[in-house]
Fold this sequence. Notes:
The complex is a heterodimer of chains A (322) and B (89).
Chain A: H1 4-19, E1 25-29, H2 38-47, E2 50-54, H3 64-70, E3 75-81, H4 93-102, E4 106-110, H5 122-125, E5 129-133, E6 144-148, H6 150-153, E7 166-172, E8 177-182, H7 196-212, H8 214-232, E9 238-240, E10 252-257, H9 262-270, E11 277-279, H10 284-289, E12 295-299, H11 306-321
Parallel strand pairs in A: 1-2, 1-3, 3-4, 4-5
Antiparallel strand pairs in A: 5-6, 7-8, 9-10, 10-12, 11-12
Helix pairs in contact in A: 1-2, 7-8, 8-11
Chain B: E1 8-13, E2 21-25, H1 30-40, E3 42-47, E4 51-56, E5 59-64, E6 68-71, H2 77-88
Antiparallel strand pairs in B: 1-2, 2-6, 3-4, 4-5, 5-6
Amino acid sequence: MRGTTEAINLVAYSWGLNNLGKGDEVLVSLMEHHSNIVPWEIVAKLKGFTLKYAKVNPDGTLDYDDIESKICSKTKIACLSHVSNVTGVINDVKRIGKVAHDNGALMLVDGAQSVPHMKVDVQDLDMDFMAFSGHKMLGPTGIGVFYGKKEVLEKMPPFMGGGEMIKEVSFSEGTGQCSISWNELPWKFEAGTPDIDGAIGLGEAVKYLEGLGMDNVLNHEKALTKYATKRMEECGKVTVYGPSNLSKKLGIIPFAVKGLSSHDVALFFDNYGIMMRSGFHCAQPLHELFKLQSSARASFYIYNTQEEIDRFMEVLKEFEQL
Amino acid sequence: MATIDDYVSRIEGTCGAESDIIVVLKYEKKDEAIANILKKATLKNKIAGIILELTYQDTSFRLYSSGKAIFRSIKNREELNKLLAALLL
């Protein structure tokens, strides 16, 4: 796969087009990245099913009562981020997956923000589909991983046609048609020449992270997040979004500075060689919920240090003087 | 004859409800470009020695010493190009 986006599109088109119709429901949440909303909206228009949106609490955590009340016999698949790319909130996907399975629905998890930062066991979580992207975990861009349960994938038709994904393409003079049979998994979903160098690069990134130990990666990020959040709350002009309970979140801190757009904030930091994302972060519904035009987002990974947060704070405190 | 492409590396629409436009000046030409802009635009405010709040005709914008500028309330690319030509050339 090229990444999480392509993997979710694969499920929406291959599984969704063939298993969903009028009267069915697909459940997503309001904290999803657009890549876990838009493919389902497109396929919903083609097939006539209803896309339902689970609510998010004002602190950015998932409203579990709401999502669980929305999973019913009509629900065919629940699609949820493991970790929000805006707030860093960790969702209990195992809990939601169990409710989905109890109602006969499948569970898709967007692991783009969890797999790079914490130990994830797809079998323990019992998810039917999961995807993540290489570029968020020290790997190359344009390569990612799609996981699916074998028994589910075997029933799904190919997403794209071409070489490698077929076992046979045989032309019959009699019918004037080709008879085609699909290749086995995983090649059925791997049409065309794969991104070989990307796969090698991602493999090395995985080895590197496993060498560090994912628990160490997680603990490092949690320590930085705790330190940065505490210090950011010292700034009167700064509003930090997300849950106050830091045990439920990873190293992403969305914030706003009074009187300045997020883009001004990002460009100000840019002058000091500090990079951050500004805007909707491809999650406009969540920003609408927070009543934000956009947000600036500080985020941490294994290469960041407490000294860098101190430097970040020095720059942030300059906003107090503006 | 110089064009805005001589000074501008890229132009990006921001992601967010603000619909701002960020103009990134070419690194090797940014000092010259900033000097040209400062000759033509009116300096309203200088913040922390980094952000220059400027106006040119009826348009307000912010120029950063890193060579990036944020323009707001620009209707379309044609209007932006005219403004950049007036400021840079």
